[in-house]
Design brief:
There is one protein chain. This protein is mainly alpha-helical and 281 residues long. It has one domain. The protein is 66% helix and 4% strand. The chain has eight helices and three strands; from the N terminus they run αβββααααααα. Strands 2-1-3 form a three-stranded antiparallel sheet. Strand 1 and strand 2 form a beta hairpin. The longest helix has 42 residues. The radius of gyration is 23 Å and the shape is globular. It starts with 11 loop residues before the first helix and ends with a helix.
Length: 281
């Protein structure tokens, strides 16, 4: 588990590879096995799932506690902080989403806080929790869910289905199909140009399908790429041994901006996509 520069006999390459390995479980020949899932597309990254659910429960507990102890006359600092986050998200939603839905503001709040909590795990020194895991017999432990592309894709696919749902809800099946086939080039409806109409519709469908599928792809890869790069820098800093903590602190001060910004970007893009899906023009 250690690397050069004060981490024992393990090489730097092995140290990095170890920290980038998920704790996995998969089914092989009818039996569930641990950490023997190379190339298995059905493998489950247990650590990513565990920390995602845990942080989601912590988010629900914190905001549930704030709601339970709400005081209109004598709000405490905790309540004021929570209200500040809610007010910020609510203002962002009102400025961006122009449709009518009671789901969007709670969705924006959930995305921002949950993704922020998952990103925030990146600030914990990289050896602390994996070392605890080793003492408990857990050989691999990645603690930042958003550095797992499966987690970011899972969230973006959920947003993708919401985009389709809101498009069909507000524009109907015909409107949804029309967006994919009648734009950006309007096919001719009469005259000699009718011969070209099927080709134009097919061309539009290809362009618009690519644009539609690019939305969840960009959402997931942007978040994953930024957080994975940040985690890798923390791992490289850890290899330096004695310089780990001061350099970790220096990078963490800057990285907290990335942690917050990526959560905000994921939330805002989700709201923008759903706003576009709700427009009826």
């Amino acid at each position: 588990m250690a690397a050069e520069g004060g981490h024992g006999p393990q090489s730097s390459g092995d140290y990095i590879a170890h920290h980038l390995q998920n704790l996995q479980v998969c089914k092989v020949d009818g039996a569930w096995v641990w950490n023997e899932c190379a190339g298995n597309p059905m493998a489950i990254n247990v650590d990513s799932m565990f920390f995602s659910v845990l942080l989601g429960l912590i988010f629900a507990w914190i905001f549930g506690r704030a709601a339970k102890n709400f005081s209109k006359d004598k709000p405490g600092k905790f309540q004021i902080a929570i209200e500040g986050v809610i007010g910020f998200i609510d203002a962002s939603v009102k400025d961006t989403f122009h449709g009518k839905s009671s789901l969007i503001a709670p969705l924006g709040l959930t995305i921002f806080v949950w993704v922020f909590f998952m990103n925030l795990m990146d600030l914990i020194p990289v050896d602390w929790l994996p070392e605890v895991g080793l003492m408990l017999g857990v050989p691999y432990l990645k603690v930042v869910p958003t550095t797992d592309v499966n987690i970011t894709f899972g969230m973006s696919i959920a947003v993708f289905f919401l985009i389709i749902f809101y498009t069909i809800k507000n524009k109907g099946i015909g409107g949804f199909i029309g967006e994919l086939t009648l734009h950006p080039i309007a096919p001719p409806t009469k005259g000699a140009g009718l011969i070209a109409a099927p080709f134009i519709i097919a061309f539009n469908f290809i362009l618009e399908s690519v644009a539609l599928l690019a939305k969840p792809l960009s959402l997931s890869l942007r978040l994953f790429g930024n957080m994975f790069a940040g985690e890798l820098i923390f791992i490289l800093i850890a290899i330096l041994g004695i310089w780990q903590l001061p350099l970790h602190f220096a990078w963490a001060v800057f990285h907290i901006l990335i942690v917050t910004l990526q959560a905000f970007i994921f939330m805002m893009l989700t709201i923008v996509y759903l706003s576009l899906a709700s427009e009826k023009h």
